[in-house]
Amino acid sequence: MRMRSRECISLRVYIMRSGISMNQDKVKIKLSDESAAPLGCLLGRAQLSKEHSSLFYDAKAVELAEKIDYDFSTSDMPFRGIMFNLFLKGNLPEFDLFTLRAKQFDDKLKVYITEHPRASVVNIGAGLDTTFYRVDNGLIHWYDLDLPAVIEVRKQLLPEPDRVSYIAKSLLDPSWCDDIEHTEGGVFMVAGGVLPWFNEPDVEQFFLTLADNFPGSEIVFDAVSRLDNGVGAWIDMFPQEQRDAMRAAWMEALKDWWERAPQDQKDKLINLIATLRVPTKPKGKKWADLESWWDQLSAKEQDQALHDFIASSRSSAGGWTLEDANEITKWDSRITVIDQFSLFRNIPRDSLSADIRRLMDYSDKTGRSNIFHLRL
Question: Which residues of 328-360 are buried (b: 16+ CB within 10 A; e: fewer)?
Fold first, then answer.
């Protein structure tokens, strides 16, 4: 789910009052209202590893997920808390499908590392990413780049192992390039779930900075298409009976969240509902008012409300989209395209549920999200 603003590219973590709070073997953390997504990605990789280990396995994500104490169900962002409640009830796919991006990145990285065993790898917008532990060959040099608040927490949750350096800077600060060493062995960069949170001028400048500082390097990243109309269209593909069940599950999850959410977050939800494209709105701010409002909507109006609610999670994105990698080559002749493919290309699906396969097929067919591999 897309929750981050331009500068909250990854895990901007605020740790209670005194930093990280240790509760026995658990690490209790509190996230800002726009920074839950990276932790969600970590949990998604852990869940994918547990449920489909033959498809993808991330031992470090599983280990770290078991240490972290964070209650998504009362998240500061109404959308995040409610959707996580749906996840807990088993009414959403059992893992964040976009965590499969990690498998595609791993495959690209392993090929490059085989050919450049002493390469430097830069993980841009690292958050709590654990790719290093999956692809390390014992020789590479690894750099995790993220904002200072993120890196501070990352150091406490994931202390720097040998040959790994953390860089506490924004990707828009070109000085981070000076921190990358051992470039003679080749430079490979990954940017997962990062660039869509910026506007096009920032993304263009970012690529020009890479071309200036790392000639001959490679980068792999993902981007959404401007044609992407979100998960709502995927929901429309379900039979009516299943869509009815999903609407009922949504209200059940909403009620669970409402009973535990602080008043300021309830107010956020009420304000969000006021923007939905449905003919009526709740008459008051109590749960009974929301329930009565929902029951008065037709099935079609409830579907529209759900579509708008899901779309609200996308409103903070910077807006950069990409359909064709050749569009980037127009920015600078030094940039060339190595590969472009749909997010779920060649990912085995036999072990996955019919609903997940449906979403993967829908995404690949519509080109809503793609992987791009460039040389600079």
Answer: beeeeeebeeeebebbbeebeeeebeeebeebb
